[in-house]
Amino acid sequence: MDGPFTISVRDVYKRFPDGTLALEGVSAEVREAEFISLVGPSGCGKSTLLRILAGLEEVTSGAAMVGGFAPASPQARAEMAFVFQEPTLLPWRTVLYNIALPLELRGVGTKERLGRAREVLDLVGLSARAGAFPRALSGGMKMRVSIARALVTRPKILLMDEPFGALDELTRQRLNDELLALKQATGATVVFVTHNMFEAVYLSQRILVMTPHPGRIAEVLEVPVPYPRTPEFRASETYGKLVYRVLSVLEGDAKAASRTEVKA
Amino acid sequence: MTQSSPVGTGSPGGDVAVAKGSRLNLWLRDALPVVLAFLVFVGLWQLGIVIFKPKPFIVPGPLDVWGAFGEHGASLLESTLITLRATAIAFILSALIGAAVSFVLTSVPILYKAVFPFTVVFQSVPVIVFVPLLLTWFGIGLPSIIAVAVIISVFPIIANTAIGLRSTDASLKQLFQLYGANPWQSLFKLRLPAALPYFFTGLRIAAGASVIGVVVGEYMAGMASTKGGLGFLVVESASRLQMAKLAATGLCAAALGIGFFLLVGYVSNLFLRSWHESARAEG
């Protein structure tokens, strides 16, 4: 392994063609192997920031770097994987062939890519469904397959855009635990976008709380609880205080916003 | 190597037997009303014939039509086969032209914007307008007949396939972009398979349309020789006031259309159920 593969964002502005200022002067550093969450209401620019890191959006001004490279560069792309809000599986491919797709697109031979697909499939506990088509799977299983597909290239950075937003609460919590285990097993850096503050506190080492209009980072919170975290963590005082802290930052902003609206 | 999967193994034989039994019941439940309605319709028809006794060249009875099948069986069969052959050629041509045109149109966005509206205009022109033109180009006979059928059946293929090629999921496109897929990979591993169900929808519509197109073509551009398709039989039996034979010809055309539609539906189901590549490889 070479030097640290970190993410850095310097004074990033993002203005959309319609004039909306999605990000205003956002700066952040993500340490190697860190689990960091971007939390905030819709319109706070959290997904835009993630998409900038993935090289799917360009900055209007400022700079985003991944491992010292531009996000859209082949060097950065080789080390990153993106998990979408929806499972985004190819319906005409079985689970195993869906997972092997990234390697296939990069020209890895059939035998090796299927072997590696089986390994990560085992990692997410779905070996028995290797030959199933996506439509035969539940929402939670589809998301596991989507995560397995992201892991098959052994990325150093995993970018996740509200991956569990569409799942029921129990499934979501189970996948939270599985994600933490996978993070521990692979040592990957995870940048996790969510609007769910409970999920953010449970998963992350650090939380960037973002507020909208325009999108900016309102506060950075550390979660001083080591891994592995167990469901009991949800019952702890630290957990409750941190959730309350995120909530008050977001609520404070919302109140401030409504006050300015009244004045105007 | 066959990996034993704990999910869905159970007792396959028993499951299949149960499924077959219930499928037969379902089929009976769905088909019985149709069969009954048909029998009632034919019964009322025959009753009307018995009561009002119309001349057979004005309203033929079901028994007359049945008789026509016996009397003209050979020529009906021959005509059906001739029409079938022309339909198959026209359908395959439509599929090839439709796929090619929709692919070219959707590959060049400006071309799509500029040209696609005209395909709708072209489609709205009644096909008989083209017949004189086609006759001067191709003369009387098979080429003109096929051209009429292609004009009718190519547009549903173009329209559906174009929608399919244009509606590739945005996230999936980004996924391919993130993994540095080249244009060929995006085409063959994403755009074409994603458009396949739409293409087959177009084909199913075209299956029925091409039979109609060929019969219309034969009616208007067929040759008045001893050998002709169903459209020619329509002309012949109408001019001789053989209305029972006309009805029998119509039934043959209907059977051909339904058969063709079912065949295309079956092939499409085969393709979309096993979803090519992945199904083949995991055996």
Q: What features would you describe in this structure?
A:
The complex is a heterodimer of chains A (264) and B (283). Chain A is an alpha/beta fold. Chain A has eight helices and nine strands. Chain A has a six-stranded mixed β-sheet, with helices on both faces. Chain A has a three-stranded antiparallel β-sheet with strand order 2-1-4, covered by helices on one side. In chain A, a hairpin with a 4-residue loop joins strand 8 (206-211) and strand 9 (216-222). The mean pLDDT of chain A is 90. By secondary structure, chain B is an all-alpha fold. Chain B has eleven helices and no strands. Chain B has helices spanning 12-52, 62-71, 73-107, 109-124, 130-138, 142-166, 170-178, 183-221, 230-239, 243-274, 277-281. In chain B, helix 8 packs parallel to helix 9. Chain B is globular. The N and C termini of chain B lie close together (9 Å). The model of chain B is unreliable at 1-18 and 276-283 (pLDDT under 50). Classes of the chains: A alpha/beta (264), B mainly alpha (283). At the A-B interface, strand 5 and helix 3 of A face helix 7, helix 8 and helix 11 of B.
Shape of chain A: globular
Counting DSSP H or I runs of 4 or more residues, the number of helices of chain B is: 11
Indicate the overall shape of chain B. globular
N-to-C CA distance of chain A: 56 Å
Roughly what percent helix of chain B? Answer: over 70%
What spatial order of strands do you see in the largest sheet of chain A?
5-6-7-3-8-9
The radius of gyration over CA of chain A amounts to 19 Å
Main sheet specs of chain A: 6 strands, mixed
| Average pLDDT reading of chain B | 84
Detail the poorly predicted runs of chain A. Answer: none
Number of DSSP strand runs of chain A: 9
Q: Quick one: biggest sheet of chain B?
A: none
**Gap between N and C termini of chain B:** 9 Å
